[in-house]
Each structure stands twice: as C-alpha cells, then as structure tokens.
Write a structure and sequence with these properties.
Order of helices and strands: HHHHEEEEE
Number of strands: 5
Length: 143
C-alpha cells in the first residue's frame, strides 16, 4: 500500500465515484469525483495529506454550492419546444361550425378539430377566431 503514490489512490477513489455516478445517476457523485481528481493533482504536485483533503473538501463544496442550484433551476423549467397537443394550447383557431358547450368544429393548425366552449353559456359563430385553452382527447376547449 505504501508503494503506491497518494495521487493514484485519489484517482481510484474518483473512478469509484464516477462508477457510482453512472450506476445511480446522482450528479453529486460526479462532483465528488471531480474533487477527487483535483486532490490527485494536489498530491502529484507534492501537497501533503492535509492539503489534499482540503482541496477535496473545497472543490466538493464549491461544485455542490454552484452546480446544484443551476441544475435544479434547469430541471424545474418547462421544455422550450412544446410538441403534440401541448404545442396547440394557446393558439388561435377559426370556427368552421358553430361552437357551444355541446360541441362544434374549428380549424386549428391547418386541421379540422372538434371543439367545445369553455364557458357553457358562450357561443362562437362561423368565421370567429377563438383561443385554444386545452385539449381533451380529440376535442379542443376554446374561449
């Protein structure tokens, strides 16, 4: 054990954390692996064990403090490119057949859709523009 330099042990530890990252998909393990590589560099440059541990702790803390909030912010954002029915919500359509609470037809994104009014007391006449607020199955809910 004394035959192997400290920097090799740090790299072995970093590799083990990297494997843990791949197996568990926990990004924190990747940050700890990067800190292990930084500690290996400190060991290769001749730093004693105290310096190596301080480098490991400082880099770990910095990465966790900086990267985690950024990752959490990106994770909570809605996708920028909506597709499918999500892309149709909020678009405008033209009434082809009178639309009321019981039904009707609209032209939405170049296609004819069945539709019904969101407000049960409201009616939309042919040629009128409406806004799509939701899609339920194959029926557009408009207002």
């Amino acid at each position: 054990m004394n035959d192997i330099d400290a920097w090799v042990w740090w790299l072995v530890g970093a590799a083990a954390l990297g494997i843990g990252l791949v197996v568990t998909a926990m990004p924190e393990l990747g940050m700890l692996a990067a800190a292990g590589v930084a500690a290996a560099v400190a060991a290769a440059l001749g730093g004693d064990i105290v310096v190596q541990v301080l480098v490991f702790v400082a880099v770990s803390a910095a990465l966790v403090a900086v990267v985690r909030p950024i990752a959490a912010r990106h994770r909570s954002q809605r996708p920028q490119l909506a597709s499918g029915v999500e892309a149709l919500k909020g678009r405008q359509a033209v009434v082809l057949e009178r639309v009321d609470a019981s039904g009707g037809r609209i032209k939405l994104a170049g296609e004819v859709w069945s539709a019904r009014a969101l407000d049960t007391g409201h009616t939309y006449e042919v040629g009128q523009e409406v806004d799509v607020v939701d899609i339920e199955g194959a029926t557009a809910i408009v207002m």
